[in-house]
Amino acid sequence: MSFGDLLKMSLSSLWRRKLRTVLTVLGVVVGTASIMVMISLGLGLSKSNMEQIEQYGGLTTITVYPNENGGGMYYSDSGMAASSMEGGASGSGSNEPIRINDAMITTLSQLEHVEIASPVLSTSAIAKYGKWEAYINIQGMSKEALQKLNLDLTDGSELPLSDSELKFLYGNTVITDFYDAKTNQYYWDTGQLADIDYMKDPLFIIFDTDAYWNSKNGGTDESGAPVAAPKKYLIPACGVMAGTENDYTENSNSVLCDVEALKMQLKKIYKGKVIPGQPTTKSGKPYKELYYDSAYIRVDDMKNVKAVQQEIQNLGLQANSNAEWMEQVQQSSRSIQATLGGIGAVSLFVAAIGIANTMMMSIYERTKEIGVMKVLGCDMAAIRNMFLAEAGFIGLIGGVVGIVLSYMISAIINFVLRDSYYSNVSYIPPYLTLLALVFAVVIGMVAGLFPALRAMRLSPLAAIRNE
């Protein structure tokens, strides 16, 4: 019996028993759709969590903080103090604080697998335009780090990459920090955003916020003289990050700039005085060099994050990353996928029982036909393959319809929950579609294997005499 004849006989047999075939296929449809939708929910939640981690710090980034407790102690990710394996700049076991300066940045950049080691210098300031005022968080980073942040900018925007001129790149949610100085009402009180165009409107920046408030409230200096109002600086904007006031990312509420330009501006403003946020000597005087609030580290591969993080901690510094969070998310996602997949597999198992039942009924009804085929010398394997082909066709048809149904259900779920999750809660990758189709066919053939073997074992004479 040729392969074409085998297919024709199998399809003809299924077509003669249309109602039974449709009901059996329907079971496969429900089983395939169930297992695909269940797995897609687990994949969607995992994908959404990974995208969220990527937005809030990334999967290959490490944030490094100074250790004010000294080289003999660092803080692990659990928040517990632990002994440093190797001393930092102050030496192992020293109680001297380990801070982040240019020399430490150089050390960090030379660690294996580190692609970028950027200083992060933060300062707060007051931004003023007309009646609008806001406290803004200014964050200076290296040009290389700013370029690697892959920020989505609005049209006409560019990164602040000048060492000599200080320019600000405003986050998309900074606008919500502006309040009406006359009424002290914020955006969250009125629902009205400040009417400010960063690129066109002259925005004045006050860096010395203490002097600003002391001068307004009648404060006096050490000599008893009234505190003079600090100088206002007109800092141009080079751009704005894309997004609405409700789109939150790691940098959406920050004002980014080039760290070297920020250092020059702060030194110019304070002129030998202590810069807010900077450490001082025992006599209360500022150090000659500026210390950074943190360091931004980018690792070449996600699998090397924990190793680099440990090396940084061995230097006596504090290091945080999303590695532990990511591992917990992946472990949770795998558990969810296994649970949901198991629930869907139950439906497909029930469908397999239906296929086996259908094939057994088909054998009982076609006993005489099988006997005639054997008497005429039909090969036993051909009889087996005929029934396996019928079962496989049921699985194939049910799998195709089930896949189409699962895509429809997935689209409905994503539409209904579009405002509740970071991204699509149901995600069906191409490989899942292919696996589901293959799985449905294999399940059908496995379910039809026992009936096919039973058909092979029928006695020809007993089959012919069967009524």
Tell me what you see in this structure.
The structure is a single chain. With 467 residues, the chain is α+β, with helices and mostly antiparallel strands. The protein folds into two domains: 190 residues, no CATH class; 186 residues, no CATH class. Helices cover 48% and strands 14% of the residues. Strands 1, 4, 5, 6, 7, 8, 9, 10, 11, 12, 13 and 14 form a twelve-stranded mixed sheet that branches. It is elongated, with a radius of gyration of 35 Å.
Give the termini distance in whole angstroms.
26 Å
* Structural class based on helices, strands and sheet pairing: alpha+beta
* Largest sheet descriptor: 12 strands, mixed
Which overall shape is indicated by the principal axes computed on the Cα atoms?
elongated
Provide the helix percentage.
40-55%
Strand content: 5-15%
Q: What is the overall number of helices?
A: 13
Total discrete domains: 2
- Overall pLDDT score: 81
Q: Count of DSSP E strands?
A: 14
pLDDT below 50 for ≥5 consecutive residues: which ranges?
72-93
Rg over alpha carbons: 35 Å
Helix/strand order, N-terminal first: HHEEEHEEHEEEHEHEEEHEHEHHHHH
Which characteristics define this entry?
alpha+beta, twelve-stranded mixed sheet, 467 residues, 14 strands
In short:
The protein is of the alpha+beta class and 467 residues long. Helix content is 48%, strand content 14%. The protein folds into two domains: 3-54 and 328-465, no CATH class; 114-299, no CATH class.
Give the topology:
Blueprint: H1 3-16, H2 18-55, E1 61-65, E2 73-75, E3 81-83, H3 102-109, E4 114-129, E5 132-141, H4 143-148, E6 168-170, E7 179-180, E8 185-186, H5 187-190, E9 204-206, H6 209-216, E10 233-234, E11 237-240, E12 255-258, H7 259-270, E13 294-299, H8 305-314, E14 318-321, H9 323-365, H10 367-375, H11 380-416, H12 430-457, H13 460-465
Parallel strand pairs: 5-12, 6-11
Antiparallel strand pairs: 1-13, 1-14, 2-3, 4-5, 4-9, 4-13, 5-7, 6-12, 7-8, 9-10
Helix pairs in contact: 1-11, 2-9, 2-11, 2-12, 9-12, 11-12
